[in-house]
Amino acid sequence: MNEIGRPLPRKEDFRLLTGAGRFSDDFALPGQAYVAMVRSPYPHARILRIESAPTRAMAGVLGVYSGADCAADRLGPIPHNPLPSTRDDMKLTGPGGGKIFEGPHLLLPADKVRHVGEAVAMVVAETREQATDAAESLEVEYEQLPWVTHSEDALEGGAPSVWDEAPG
What we know:
By secondary structure, the chain is of the alpha+beta class. The protein has five helices and six strands; from the N terminus they run αββαβαββαβα. The protein has a three-stranded antiparallel β-sheet. The radius of gyration is 21 Å and the shape is flat. The termini are far apart. The model has no long low-confidence stretch (mean pLDDT 91).
């Protein structure tokens, strides 16, 4: 416990500050594929249709995947526990001391989007440019749903819920 309250030397600073850091995007391997994600422009919307056939036909496109593909392949939510869980963490509870609802962390949603920027489809292509162009061409049709921008508004009776499974 002698380190608490004392600055620790950071080993990575010099290489990062001098531009010598290496990141996954700095590597290119023979036969490497590239991914571009298609993200929702809406905070809350039902996904009505993703028209992928024209995108799949584009030069260099290796695949286009959506939440429907994940569901068809029976890919479940990513297991995780977003709540503090060690004995030293503050214990959180839901309203009235109940359990806190944890929404499933889906790879790609098949039903609706729950925040701006949520990924709704993934395009895989031979080059970064092909992946980006294909992602931009993908047609996604949404039905906007009611949403709120302030957490206090979300607590009001009748406020829209992004998770139908959450207890009211």
